From TrEMBL:
InterPro entries with a match to the protein in the record: His_Pase_superF_clade-1, His_PPase_superfam, PG/BPGM_mutase_AS, Phosphogly_mut1
Substrates-to-products reaction catalysed: (2R)-2-phosphoglycerate = (2R)-3-phosphoglycerate
Binding sites annotated in the UniProt record for substrate: 8-15, 21-22, 60, 87-90, 98, 114-115
Protein's name in the database: 2,3-bisphosphoglycerate-dependent phosphoglycerate mutase
Family of the protein in this entry: Belongs to the phosphoglycerate mutase family. BPG-dependent PGAM subfamily.
């Protein structure tokens, strides 16, 4: 029986300030650091031993991962970083305040951009470039829907994470709200028109347990007070 724990990074400054970020790097707040520590302490209490860890190319996820691994005394395990676990790219919305965008376009349109499956936010007029992606030969998106995020995420799941779980190796993923929503949609087989109801809060781990055929046997929402709320 293999275990997978997925965690959205701790609160970032953009989360605190209600700003779209996407592929933009922003630091964790003090609260975000504390959230990572609390996740680590709870996972330590549960005694899960991970074989591998996976995170994005964004510093807020990487730092949350490091905090968690330090608190569970597992800094020695392999950590794999991939752009495929990055937050979705919000295109021209990046850097804008969500409340101001809501005033301009209305709550319904904003909800479709943020929570819908196929809706693509306004695109950038010019493609951005960063060394971290240029060195990989990866072109930064002009904008991404959740469907596009899922499409670039799934090859990594299928090639790097799923085989390890099938081998009985416990895995840890620390990523982002949208990339984790895309993964949850796939794992839980959530219909396109219902994914807008799924939220992934900062620093709230979810535990999946799988049989050797990679069927989900249990899903648990881990709380920070030592209690677990689960459904199978």
């Amino acid at each position: 029986m293999a275990k997978l724990v997925i965690v959205r990074h701790g609160q970032s400054q953009a989360n605190r300030d209600n700003i779209f970020t996407g592929w933009t790097d922003v630091p964790l707040t003090e609260k975000g650091i504390e959230q990572g520590q609390m996740v680590g302490d709870e996972l330590a209490r549960m005694g899960i031993q991970f074989d591998d860890a996976h995170t994005s190319y964004m510093s807020r996820a990487i730092k949350t991962m490091n905090i968690i691994l330090e608190r569970i005394d597992q800094l020695y395990i392999p950590v794999y970083k991939t752009w495929r676990l990055n937050e979705r790219h919000y295109g021209a919305l990046s850097g804008l305040n969500k409340a101001k965008v809501k005033e301009e376009v209305g709550a319904e349109q904003l909800h479709r951009w943020r929570r819908g499956y196929s809706e693509v936010p306004p695109k950038l007029k010019q493609r951005q470039h960063e060394r971290r992606y240029d060195r990989l030969g990866v072109k930064m998106p002009y904008s991404e829907s959740l469907a596009m995020t899922q499409k670039r995420l799934l090859p990594y799941w299928e090639d790097q994470i799923a085989p390890r779980l099938m081998d009985g190796k416990n895995q840890l993923i620390v990523a982002h709200g949208s990339s984790l929503r895309a993964l949850i949609k796939y794992l839980d087989q959530i219909p396109d028109d219902q994914i807008d109801q799924v939220e992934v809060p900062n620093g709230k781990p979810i535990l999946y347990e799988f049989d050797p055929a990679l069927n989900i046997t249990k899903k648990t929402f881990i709380t920070m007070d030592g209690e677990e709320n689960g459904n199978s």
